[in-house]
Specification:
2 domains, globular, Rossmann fold
Length: 301
Amino acid sequence: MSFKSDLISGLSKKNKTIPSKYHYDLQGSKYFEKITKQKEYYPTQKEKEILIKVSKQIPKLFEGELSFIELGSGAIDKIKLLINKNVKYYVPLDISLDFVKKSVIKLKKKYPNIKIKPKKIDYSKPFKIPNFKKTTKVYFFLGSSIGNFHNREEILFLKKLRKSIGKNHYLFIGVDLIKNKKILDKAYNDKKGYTAKFSLNLITIINRIQKSKFNINNFYYNGFYNIKKKCIQGFLVSKISQNFKIGNKKFRLKQNEKILVEISNKFTIKSFKKLASSTGWSTQRIWQDNQKYYSLFLLKS
């Protein structure tokens, strides 16, 4: 579906939604990078802690020359922790290609012998995986992005990904774990307000692409951990009653009506292992940080 059709579909529902993937224009990607550097936002810190451990084990885990393929690469900070002399190709795949191209400039200078081939991709849709012969392909889906799918769509995603990759390939996947609500609420409501700016930037994106006339000042961000649903829910809330159009379709937002724009499902080790198995993946290894806030799974297709 297109951005326009996704908007019309989501905003036509009783409980309005906009897919979170549309946050990531260049400005949105910059805001998200700032979020990951905030003290409250533990997932990036904990994932890096684990990746430093894993980096020492990569040569033992995989033999021969390697191709690293990263889905949703963003600022590519994490993959730099894992690159070694056996890595011959690196393919960062992201919906925001401009941001990725800027991010890989430094990486190219540091690793001139690695062939780096950034590619724009919407991994929620079918896509082709680059083929590098005579290398072991290692895929990465980091940043707990597996939690950002709505309505159990992560099941379909993992099935499609396994089919796209083919048999006997590897996937590192970051999985955020269920923990105290206070810790989770702080992580998605940083004191400097970058999470709010990240979500409100979606209004700017809609106005630019759809030629709509939303006033960003008529919305505020509200994000919290829903214990019952085991997920973070981020909403844009309308401060006033307002009418608007997407194309020729008319809509109305009531005062205090919410639009769900961000979701981050949380798992247990057991529940994610079960999810992976149900979609045809086998769990090879599991790592956790010292506080057991976060986990990294190594799956095999």
